[in-house]
Each structure stands twice: as C-alpha cells, then as structure tokens.
Design a protein that fits this description.
heterodimer, A: 378 residues, alpha+beta, 2 domains, 8-stranded mixed β-sheet, 4-stranded antiparallel β-sheet, 25% strand, B: 259 residues, alpha/beta, 5-stranded parallel β-sheet, globular
C-alpha cells in the first residue's frame, strides 16, 4: 500500500533529465531503458530523449513486438529481453591473466574497477531478482567479488509497473508489481486524464539527497491514490498466473511425470530461458592460450544448464537428454532453489515464456503437472 | 624448443574460403609461422616440404574417386588431422547432390559427360578417415582456428563449444530476431562459433556451423511452419551449407515429405 510520507514528492513528467543530472553529479553512469533491435533494452542513458518515450510492447509465448502508446509515457513498457544481471553479473569477466617468465610464470587478477551504475527503471520483479541473486553471490563462505563490487556501488531507481504483459505473473510470485523495499528511489508514473507526473518515494538517505534535487513538491493523499490506480491497472492486466501451493512438494513427487517427455519434445535446449532469467547464475570458466604460448587468459562466461558441457564430468554429461535438462532447470527454479536459498528462484517476470523461441510456458508446464497429479489423487 | 611442428593445409572439393580464413589470421600469421613450419600450403606458398606432417588441416569434401584415395594418403602422412569448415565436416553445399541423381546433373551440365569422374555423393572427411577434430563453419572462424592450433601446440583442449548460437546472442546482448521480429532463425539448433554474425545485423541464422549438440530440429521446424513459413522454405533452411549433417538431412527430408 502506498503511503504518503514526509519524503514522498510529486514531480513533473519531464523530470528525468534532472534525475540523470543529479545521478551523474554523484559519479554514476545511468543505465536505463532505450530502443534498440526492435525491443526495449538497457543501455547508457544520457538524456530523457534516450528513453522509449511513447512505446509499449506486446508479449506472448515466443513473441515480442513494440507498439506505440497514445501518450508520452517514459516507462510505459513491461519487462524486456534483458535484466539487470547483465550489469551485476556480466556475461564475460576476465578472472586472471598469466604470463610466462624465464623461471616459470606470473599470474595477475585484474580486479574489479567498476564505474558505479545507477539503474533507472528497475521493475519490482527485477528488484526481487536482484535480491535472489544477492543470496547466491553475497551469502555463504564464497562471496563473489565482481558481483559484490557492482552491487554495492549500484543506485537503484525503481519504477512501479503501470502496465503488465500477457506473460507477467509477479502477483502469483508475490514479487510485484509494486516494489516494497530495497531501492534508493521509487517512481510511479501517473498517466491519466492528460496528467503526466511521477510520484517519488525515497528508500535511502542517498535517495533522499537525489530526490531533493528534482523539481517537485510534497505529494498529497490524492497523488498517492492516483499512483495506486496505476499499479492496480498492472495487477488487472497480469496475463499469467502460477499456483504456488505446495509447489516444491508437487515437483519433488513428479520427477517421473510424463509431462517432462511432452515438454522435451518441444524444448530446443537452446538455453534462452536461462539467459533471460534474471536469477539464473550459472557460468563456465574458459582458458585461452595465445599462439606464442607465453600468455593465457581465464574468463568466466554465462553458461546454462541446457548445455551438455554444463553437466559434463569424467565419463560424460550427467544430463545428456533435453528431458533431464528441462526438468533440472524447472525443478531447480521452483523447488530445489527453496531448499538451497530459502526462496523461489522465479520472480514471475515472464521472460522465459516470451523469449523461448517456441513459446514454452513455465506456468503452463506447472499447471499440466498439477492437474495430472490431481487426477491421480496425489 | 625442438624442431618446429610441420603444418600442412590440404584442399578437397571446396570454395577455398576456409583456407583464406587461415590467411585472414593477419595479426597471428607471422606468430604462427614462428611456431610451426608451414610445410605444405599451396594457397599461400609454392614451396613444398615433404611429409610426414604433425598437423594437417583439411578443407573440402570428398567428391571424386581420386580424392577418396588422396585423403587416405594424407591421413597416413599426418599425426593429427583437423577438418576445416562445412565441406570437410558435413559435405558442404555440394552435398545437395546427395538428394538427387548426380548422373542427371552431369548430363545436363557438361558437353562431354564421359570426361567427368565423380562420386554419387559429396561426403565429409570423417566418412573416409579418422578425424582428430572437426572445426565447423562456412567459413570457419579464424579465432577458433588459432585456438585449435594453439591447443595442438601446447596441449589444452580448444575452446570450441557445441552449444546453440542463442547462448552467444544473449551474451553479446543481441535481441532475438525470431521473437522480436518474427524472422525464422536457425540459431536454436545451430552450433555456435560465428560470433552471431547474422542476428547482429537483424538476420536469421543460416546454420553455417551445422547442428549443435542435441538439436531439436523437429520442434523448430514446426514453429517456423506455425509462424507462416511454407514447408518448402522450411525444407530449404535445413538444406543449405550443412545439408548432409545427419540432423539437418533428416529434418529436410521430413519437411520435403510434408511439402
């Protein structure tokens, strides 16, 4: 529920340049939504004009199309092909460089000299996904230094959703469409009856400093109600749902379910679902030697449980079939993740549905297993 | 170091594009010449050093009785044999003959068909001799070639993963052309290695590197048909530079029956 606190402000619809200016003054590189390759992607934002002003998207299983809106919304789109993991857990990271010397070799770890990023337009599902990845990379005995440096430096500007895609199901996963905590600033873009303003909520002291530099005035109860109506609209538009009741136990009982064979007949084991997933964190380590044999590099790169190499151990791949790979991914995401990290690995962003080249729908697969199990009296 | 390893580059039925990729290693070429003895490479030099050879790179497919014998001699003279590209690895574009009667082609194309000695099928090098490593692509990727040669010289396994093109599109940040633009793309069933060339320019993947590991061609073909690609076109996207790679051949034959 939105409450008007002493820090909530109302700012004009064209306040983004002021926001960018305030962030840049503090040394942040601003990363936000922009149009490229027929989609809304995240890239450096230098001015408000870089935003996808007046653009929306239509999504379905295996399909994403940009569509013009009839207003000047700055954040009028839903979750796109990329998530923020691209900036917190980069696709390729140099881990080590080695050089041959007369008496052996020297190794050098380059370390992380990250430019601090300000993430502009973080959706609630993705903010929850960052919290999920925090558990993977920042807790336990092995803290990931690359992720840690980037994560601690990041300034987060949430934009609560005012619309949802046909593939969204954050309501089912209790991860949105309104972010509850974990941001520096949270905006709600109010678009109704010719009105275009942002409700600005503050979530941290540095957020308060930046908010203080926006052209704004104190928000009223009426502003908060208008913001609430925007979020309610997104809830009403939620295109998918997943029944999570006893989901972990359901999947543990269903390891031999015939549905895995059904989905394997459609699944391409192409890895798209895992790479667009904002919580998937698998990587591989590659070593390359140059032709002189005097230099070697070790890199960490995004990987996926859908490749044969991912489960390759002495003697072969543990998961040679598509059936075993899909089952591994889905049961990890929705069941074993809970045992491992104390939370589901799914935030309901729907990217795995939209960006599956053949439109495989995780909510539909769960439904099929659940319904069939019911029929058997489980 | 003891004597430098002897490298040979051999040509069979092919367009020479993969050999040119060796010459395109401009920055690395002098280093390569310093690390290995380029003993036989007619495309680059007329100087010929006799075998045996430590590493033979073989371009092209076997299409004539003469070549079927020649590859045996090359294998016998080579410690390691690596094939370069779609022709040597899967028969190449000329393997389109494998789906038709080659005698009919000869009678139409040549004024004196009796002068032509050719085999019924264009076949991969691995159909004739043991191959130590197959480098995919039409043409090959020069960085992968350098990596394979470095791996041969120094020992570690080359970094030539057999997963889909999609994984590299996502790493590179290229938006899926199939999902965002409705363009049929072979990426989900194709072996990576090209650096996602076509999707980077808003084109669908042509499958130049052949089937990836564990390809589900049937599911992708059904999706192509579902989004409005005719069966004949679906058949043709699988019947391309790697038409004789088993997974693509079987799918194109299935689509041919449906068209």
């Amino acid at each position: 529920m939105l409450h008007v606190s002493h820090v909530a402000r109302i700012a004009p619809g064209n306040c983004v340049d002021s926001l960018l200016h305030a962030l840049r003054q503090r040394g942040y590189m601003c990363i936000g939504p922009t149009l490229r390759d027929a989609a809304v992607v995240y890239d450096e934002i230098r001015s408000e004009r870089d935003l996808p002003i007046g653009w929306a998207d239509e999504q379905e299983g295996g399909s994403y199309r940009l569509k013009k809106r009839n207003d000047e919304a700055r954040f009028g789109y839903t979750a796109g092909p990329q998530s923020w993991k691209r900036y917190l857990f980069p696709p390729s990271t140099l881990l080590m460089k080695a050089k041959r010397t007369p008496d052996g070799f020297t190794a050098e770890a380059p370390g992380e000299k990250a430019t601090p990023h300000a993430f502009l337009g973080v959706r609630s599902c993705d903010l929850n996904a960052i919290a999920v990845q925090d558990r993977t990379f920042l807790t336990g005995p092995y803290v990931d230094p690359t992720y840690k440096a980037r994560r601690e430096a990041a300034f987060i500007v949430v934009v609560h959703c005012g619309q949802a895609a046909r593939t969204c199901f954050c309501v089912s996963m209790e991860t949105g469409p309104m972010a509850k905590a974990g941001y520096d600033l949270a905006l709600t873009e109010i678009l109704e009856d010719g009105r275009h303003e942002f409700l600005v909520e503050v979530g941290s002291p540095r957020g308060a400093e930046v908010a203080g530099e926006l052209p704004s005035q104190a928000a009223t109860e009426s502003d908060a109600r208008a913001a609430r109506r925007m979020v309610d609209r997104a809830v009403a538009q939620m295109g998918r749902a997943m029944d999570t009741t006893d989901l972990k136990e359901l999947l543990y009982r269903a390891l031999d379910h015939p549905r895995w064979g059904n989905v394997a007949a459609r699944c391409l084991s192409c890895a798209n679902c895992t790479l667009v997933c904002p919580t998937c964190f698998c990587s591989t380590v590659e070593e390359v030697t140059d032709l002189t044999g005097d230099h070697a590099e070790r890199r960490r790169r995004w990987d996926s449980c859908f490749t044969a190499a991912h489960s390759y151990i002495h003697g072969g791949s543990v998961r040679p079939t598509t059936l075993s790979r899909y089952r591994q991914w889905m049961t990890h995401k929705l069941a074993t993740w809970i045992d491992q990290f104390g939370t589901s690995g799914c935030v309901g962003c729907g990217r795995c549905i939209t960006w599956c080249p053949v439109g495989i729908d995780i909510t539909e697969e769960v439904r099929a297993i659940r319904e069939d199990n019911r029929g058997k009296g489980h | 170091m003891a004597r430098k390893p002897k490298l040979a580059v051999w040509k069979f039925a092919s367009c020479d594009g993969c050999q040119l990729s060796v010459l395109s290693c401009e920055d690395e070429l002098l280093t390569l010449a310093g690390q290995v003895e380029i003993a036989y490479f007619p495309e680059a030099s007329s100087a010929v050093v006799k075998g045996p050879y430590d590493l033979s790179l073989v371009e092209g497919s076997v299409t004539t009785p003469h070549d079927a014998e020649r590859i045996q001699r090359i294998r016998a003279a080579s410690r390691f044999l690596v094939t370069l590209g779609a022709c040597a690895t899967a028969g190449g574009i000329q393997a389109l003959r494998n789906f038709r009667d080659v005698k009919e082609f000869i009678s139409i194309v040549y004024a004196k068909p009796e002068y032509i000695q050719t085999l019924e099928k264009s076949t991969a090098i691995s159909a004739h001799v043991k191959v130590d490593f197959e480098l995919r692509g039409c043409p090959i990727n020069k960085n992968q070639l350098v990596d394979v040669i470095a791996a041969f010289i120094y020992g570690p396994a080359p970094t030539v993963p057999p997963h889909s093109v999609c994984l590299d599109c996502k790493r590179k940040g290229v938006v899926c052309v199939m999902v965002a633009r409705g363009i049929p793309c072979m990426g989900p069933v194709t072996h990576t290695g090209c650096g996602v060339l076509c999707p980077s320019y808003a084109r669908g993947c042509y499958g130049c590197f052949g089937p990836k590991e564990n390809p589900n061609t049937g599911s992708l073909a059904e999706w192509f048909a579902r989004v409005g690609t005719s069966r004949d076109e679906v058949m043709r996207v699988f019947r391309n530079f790697n038409s004789d790679a088993p997974a693509f051949r079987e799918e194109s034959e299935r689509q041919e029956k449906l068209s």
